[in-house]
Structure formats: C-alpha cells, structure tokens
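Notes from hallway chat w/ T.B., transcribed later so I don't forget. T.B. wanted the structure written out for a chain they're using in a teaching module, and asked if we could keep both sequence and structure tokens in one place. Agreed to drop them here.
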Amino acid sequence: MTQIAGDARATGDAQATGDPRVTGDPRVTGYAWAAGDERLGIMDLLAAEGRRIDLPGLYNLRDLGGYPAAGGPTPWRTLFRSDALHQLSGAGIDRLSALGLRTIVDLRTHVEAEIAPSPLDQFSARHAHVSILGANLPALPPRLEDVYTHIVGQCGTAIADAIRPLCADRAFPALVHCSAGKDRTGIVIAMVLAVLGVPDDVIAADYALSGGYLDPTQTAAIGQLRAGTGLGDELTEELLSSPPQLILDVLASAREQHGSVYGYLLAHGLSPADLAALRTVLAGPGLAGPGLAGPGLAG
C-alpha cells in the first residue's frame, strides 16, 4: 500500500472523565506519531476508568466517551464498539443490556452472522445489519493494508449505510461491532470520530487498542474469532494486529478523495442533516449550528 501522509488535525487536550461503574486495564502499543506530553495525554485518555468493559464472552468492548471533539468531550455511555456478541454468557447479556442500548449495528457478512448468530432476542435495541465487505471474506486480499485500501476505495456506500442508523432519532446508546471489533468497526468508528472533530492521533490510538485487547497469546479469543468468521487458520497474527498507521491512511485516503471525511460520507449517501444529528448527540449541539455543519469543521 502506498503510504498516504496523515492529515492530522488539531490535537485535543481534553481531560477524560471516567465512569466508575466499569474498569479496564488496556494494553497499548505503538505511538510513534505522538511524543512527550501529547503522548502522555493520549495514554491517559485510553486508560480512563470505564474505557474497557470486561464482559464474559467479549474481548474488545470499549466505551468511546471522553475523547476531545470540536464541541467538547464525547459523552460516556453513549457509543460503544466491540467484537461479535455470540459468545456472551447470561451474565454478560445482562450487563450489556444494562447499558440501555437502543441501536446495535452489525458489520459482519451474512455468513458470519449465520455461523455465529447474535442473541438479538435478548436486547430491545434496534438492529441494523450492514455487511461492509459484501458476502465473501475469503476473497479479500491477504495483506491487511490491502483490505483497508479495498474498504475505503470500494465500500464507501456500505460505510455510510453503517453510520446512518446512528443518525436516527433516539439512536443512542449504540453499539457498533463486527467479528473482531477491529477492522470494519475500526474504520466506521474512525470516520464517526473524524466527523466529530476528534484529532487523528486520538482516533489512531483508540484503533490501536484492539491490538492489545486481541492479544494473539489469548488462545480463547483467537479460537473464537477463527470459528466465528469461518476463516480458521487463515486468520493470522498479522490480520489481528492494529498498527495505527493503517487507520491514519484510511482517513487520509477519504480526505484525498473528497476533501474531508465529512465530504466522503456525503458523497456516499449521508446527508448534512444526518451528520448534524450525529454531531448533536456525540459532540454537542453547537456543532450543528450555522457555519459548523459542513466540511469546514476538521474531519
């Protein structure tokens, strides 16, 4: 993949406010793009109390609250990302239900959903199934960077379709997931955060968390993913990594194509009203006002 220079927007220094109900101890690696006080600030954001939510049967569930956005920190207990839900225990279902989810967006293929069905009858949330990759996982390129190039170049409409349920009235709290909660979920969440004005270095740091949560030494996690995707041994350690430059390249490619992530999503089917609604909930009502609802905002 030809490396595209990252279009890192203004960095935020907002203090993350933890939620004492759930604690986590994320393992974070790879911060070559940040240094000194900036790196320490990002680490504090990632390690905020309540970031990682540890539930039996889930390995990659986290809260996207407390990240600096253009209208103030993103709200806690509002937007979540995770891996697939099919191995949730009864206790895990109860604890996930306690988050009050109103929307669940499943980005897996129909084959993955059939192999590893989610316990949807256990949740009152609206469910949207949008396969980012169409129907055939094994047909994808073997190199992770080529998969990402394919997604941002060829799957823009599906990305917009996946974000659309989050723009609906009373969509939150919401959960976005795929099988690992890393690649498809990572790209969709990165674009949502970019539209909110979250700095690129924070977006990349959040993305990189998955590499620690899905540590290849966790045999149970890897076995669950290999079975749930149907890829078996084709799901290699390389495909389970989450180097931050990959997501920076995705954002840069979207901006190269359409001027901004905002413009990319408009070009693939979302409306200004959709994105204004998203910003109102996740980054403060000021972002939807005159002069701030368009691509002039960092994104």
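Follow-up for T.B.: Strands lie at 62-63, 68-69, 72-73, 79-82, 103-106, 126-129, 174-177. Might be a good example for the class.
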